[in-house]
Amino acid sequence: MTKLLVVGGGKMGEALVGGVLAAGWASPAEVVVSEVSPERRDQLGAPGGLAARFPGLQVVAGQLPPAEGALVAVKPHDVADVCRRLGEGGAARVLSIAAGVRLAELEQWCGASTAVLRAMPNTPALVCAAATALAPGTRAGKDDVEWATGILASVGTVAQVPESQLDAVTGLSGSGPAYVFLVAEAMTEAGVLMGLPRAVAAELVAQTLLGSARLLRESGQTPEALRAAVTSPGGTTAEGLRRLEAAGTRSAFIEAVAASAARSRELAAHGG
């Protein structure tokens, strides 16, 4: 029997399949990708595509063959039909990454014999650097959580949270890459304004963000301590930070996360 059925071969589904195969969680012959779009199937099977990089991987046209577990990576409006079909097919475990679709709905559609889990990865999964939150359903046991964690950890880090916290996760790490990219845009524009060639400014900004993230992750120090270490009294960084605080930058980020989380709750309440 297939070890993992991935329903939805979009960018996130592709990233997760590539992750589990590269990590050795499964062999290509043990994974099936079900994708209804002919154009997307062609992309997955093209030279350099997922199926070409992992010989033995099957890409099928929307069928849902029996599998030990299934990853649901389709649009929210398609989740109900997919989950019903998976439940009818006897799927023992289902992991959904569909935004805004609650565990209670997933469990109802899949049926009483299926353990259901829900996850919120972010787009850095595309480069195996995701921050993902995982929420188990009422029928998901320790083995089910370990199964889902193994899949998600192949593309980054995983934190287990109750479902009640997933809207906050959406506002923070789900939308977070967009906030960082906005910072990158603004810093690049500032570099150009100060006379740097755009390509040079963009490279310096990208490496600064990458290096700062690694320092935060690997040093074991708090953001406050690292910021203080860069900030000499009366120096250039202190002046720049003073302007950012005066512009309400800290508050703006807090408000952005809160607004995104609120919007996530609102969309879920209205069925996505």
Characterise this structure.
With 272 residues, this protein is an alpha/beta fold. It has two domains: 2-163, Rossmann fold, CATH 3.40.50; 174-268, Orthogonal Bundle (ProC C-terminal domain-like fold). It contains twelve helices and eight strands. It has helices at 11-22, 38-45, 50-53, 79-88, 103-110, 142-153, 166-174, 176-193, 198-219, 223-230, 236-246, 249-269, and strands at residues 2-7, 31-34, 58-60, 67-72, 93-96, 115-120, 130-136, 156-160. An eight-stranded mixed beta sheet has the order 3-2-1-4-5-6-7-8, sandwiched between helices. Helix 4 (79-88) links the parallel strand 4 (67-72) and strand 5. The longest helix has 22 residues, at 198-219. The chain is globular and about 65 Å long. The model has no long low-confidence stretch (mean pLDDT 96).
| CATH homologous superfamily descriptor of the largest domain | NAD(P)-binding Rossmann-like Domain
The largest pleated sheet is described as: 8 strands, mixed
Would you identify the CATH architecture of the largest domain?
A: 3-Layer(aba) Sandwich
Q: How are the strands of the largest sheet arranged?
A: 3-2-1-4-5-6-7-8
Gap between N and C termini, in Å?
Answer: 33 Å
Regions with little confidence, pLDDT below 50 for 5+ residues: none
Q: How many helices in DSSP terms? A: 12
Total beta strand runs: 8
Whole-number average pLDDT? 96
In total, the number of domains comes to 2
Decide which structural class fits the backbone. Answer: alpha/beta
Radius of gyration: 21 Å
CATH topology-level fold name of the largest domain: Rossmann fold
Written as H for each helix and E for each strand, in order along the chain, the element string is: EHEHHEEHEHEEHEHHHHHH
CATH class assignment of the largest domain: Alpha Beta
